[in-house]
Protein: BolA family transcriptional regulator
Organism: Natrinema halophilum
Amino acid sequence: MKPVAVEEIIESNLEDAEATVTHARDKHDEDHLAATVVSPVFDGLPLVQQHQKVYDSLGDHMTTDIHALELSTYTPAEYDDLETDG
């Protein structure tokens, strides 16, 4: 599955999400992807629940089209802080 298609699925199924998806570094398999997802939905949720929301947004694609997904999830405030510090 192409990264841009994964971005579109996440953004259309997860409220106010902005997703950036690439092929995972050092992986030679196109089914290994890395995603950064920013959404206010993550506010107050533990990391495991944040990741579950992303997996839920992808539905069956997680078992049929995507072999592995490296996730980084942030609220908009956390992401703004990350960009300011970086």
